[in-house]
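Progress report, Aim 2. The chain analyzed during this reporting quarter is listed below.
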Amino acid sequence: MSSSAPPASAPRPAARGPFAGPGEEGPRCRRAAGEAVLAGLLVLLAYVALDWYRGVPSMLGMTLDGGVMVVLALAGTGLVLVRRRFPAGSVLGLSALMGLFPATGLLTAVAAYTAARQTEARRRRATLLLAGLALAPLVCFASAPVTGLGGRPYGLVLGAVLAATTVLVPGLVGTAGGQQDRLVRALRERTAAAEEARRLADSVARMHERSRIAAEMHDLVGHRLSLISLHAGGLEMALRAQSPELREEAALVRCATRDAMRELREALGVLGPLGRDTGTDALTDATGTRADIEALVAESRSGGIPVEFSWEGDDLDARPARVRRAAHRVVRETLTNVHRYATGAQVTVAVTHTGQRVEIQVRNGAPPVPPAASTGLGSGRGLTGLRERVALLGGTFEAGGRPGGGFSVTAGIPADPADTAGSAPGARAADAAPAEEGPSGTGDQPKPSRRLGHFQRGLTSTATGLLGLVGVGAMMLFGVVLVDKAKPTPAYHPFEPRVGMTWEQLQRVGISDYDVTRAAAAGREPRRPRSATDCMYPWVDATAKGGRLQIVRYCFRSDVVISIDRFTVPVVTEPQPPRGSRAHD
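Predicted structure tokens for the chain:
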């Protein structure tokens, strides 16, 4: 019976809520609640701004019932909350809603911006924006008589202006923002890939250098073991006749030496092919001594490189082989780079040997002729190998450009590195560097720094969004004012009373009897028509011309005007107009 537990099922990703955008999980209710409050404030501010412009009260939905306006505002808030999950439905729904209730125009701008920014397909994005541009004028055209805008052509023009300011402009801005986001994301991915490639190249360079060091160790230790084996064999032959009892001990030493050589080859074989220096550059017991370094300098001089050489302190012939070989490698690799990338530049090689440390510094100036474009600056793997070699000895290595041009390499190597140099701080730093670096090569930032960065970016985005909404609101109000000012108005025809009108028609336009005017006309008016049953003396202009007052008299028969007479009377008093009366000359 098997005791193994069944494999644990992989955790399912959280369901994407109606308020979540692409790549987001969870309901996002807290963010949706905050956006709902902001959406309500935007609708209220747009309503107040349009109400401030008294020339177009019908645009505010004044002809709509208050409850209907609240329902429309809530519908607009719901549509703007789901704009990330359903961008097309949000834009089209708010475009249609704006034709009925223009105060939701700012919400339409928010939805259009978000939809255009997160929609990557160019054709789909263009179709969505064009549909929103067409839907708002059509709904405004169809609902103009119901909402009190007046004529349908006027509603069509108003809807077109609203659509242009709240759909087209935010959509174009969102398109540019989306392209920038995708470009930045692509650049980050390319940077991460390049950084990963660089780390892999550095790792290969380190392994190559370690393989080279292993080959050097194999050659050195193998040579010593070969000598021991050779002397042990000679000793075995000599003791065969003189001291047979010691012959077995000599044979044991020879066999142990042979086994040690075999085990050394097997141990180093796990590193793969061992990189060796061959030919004139083969490493020997004299490698790294003063004579060897001077030979490298002389070789560079013969190649046309002006090199200045200085040595301070004792020779390195008494130092361990790995120290001497590290010094040889630093000088040789640096001079090789000068030959490749700075031909003709002035070079200075300085070696300082103190009692405890070996300092090597190689500097070169700017080359008189810039290197060819195909040469570039090299792969940098040679310097990576040098850094690895020096770090394994517990030393320090620095390489970089100089302020005035050129390049500088500085290495500090312990004169007597301990056997545990591989665990020295320099070696640990070299081994840990690839693991500690993040995708960008700078390492993971602390959590407080990341939180502060997120907060700053969020604050900047919020401020930018608010400024954008202010701009869209100003454009929308300006467009509404222009459309209203361009609205044709019927020609004004002043009211002209005429014979045949009724008493009620005159009173409807503000013409009514005034006792002061009747008293002023008493005894000074012309004769009334015989068939007149009554007369009306409305308020007249109190300004006397030539000391006489202009009076108009309407005479009726059965409430129908049969005579309109105009005459003047001497000014006696300063009459006051009745409230709500209309003056007549």
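The chain has a mean pLDDT of 78. The radius of gyration is 50 Å. These observations will guide the mutagenesis work planned for the next reporting period.
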